[in-house]
Amino acid sequence: MVEAWYMDESQEDQRAPHRLQPNRAVSLEQLRLLGVTYRKLDADNYETDPCLKQIRKAESYSWMDIITIHKDKLPNYEEKIKTFYEEHLHLDDEIRYILDGSGYFDVRDKDDKWIRISMEKGDMITLPAGIYHRFTLDENNYVKAMRLFVGEPVWTAYNRPADDFPARKQYMKFLTGEAR
Fold this sequence. Notes:
By secondary structure, the chain is α+β, with helices and mostly antiparallel strands. The chain contains four helices and eleven strands. It has helices at 28-33, 50-59, 77-85, 166-176, and strands at residues 3-6, 25-26, 37-40, 63-69, 88-89, 94-108, 114-120, 123-127, 133-137, 143-149, 158-159. The strands form two sheets. Strands 1, 2, 3, 4, 6, 7, 8, 9 and 10 form a nine-stranded antiparallel beta sheet that branches. Strands 5-11 form a two-stranded antiparallel ribbon. Strand 6 (94-108) and strand 7 form a beta hairpin.
């Protein structure tokens, strides 16, 4: 089961857990209220998993690829790690399914505080369009993930501030309960 918590303000190694002391855990329900959805799947059988097939059909995830983030596998590794950790948003949902390894997605709550979501093998997360977030490896320095998209992939990240984009405005309406 996924674990999430509020982060401390430390600027130390981004790969460390950065839990507040005492720990302030965040539930799946709290994540859902931010628009973040989570599923646990069978990563050992992702190529034939009927649950993944059903999700892809129901959500119209027609495109996918697999990325391995490790210094020996990803070209321009150091540059990519820095880019992934910059606070940004996307105009479309971001869907990631961890096939092996582990890492952290950080998302902002309604009060602009960071929540760290620990992701490991079998975890699938959907971050809604317009949510400010970032990604980093954990101290294991390795993750293999499936990236899923509706239609052709759009890789553009808009670094904060990006509040004028329609996706951000719609997300803010969702947070305040104004979205229909």
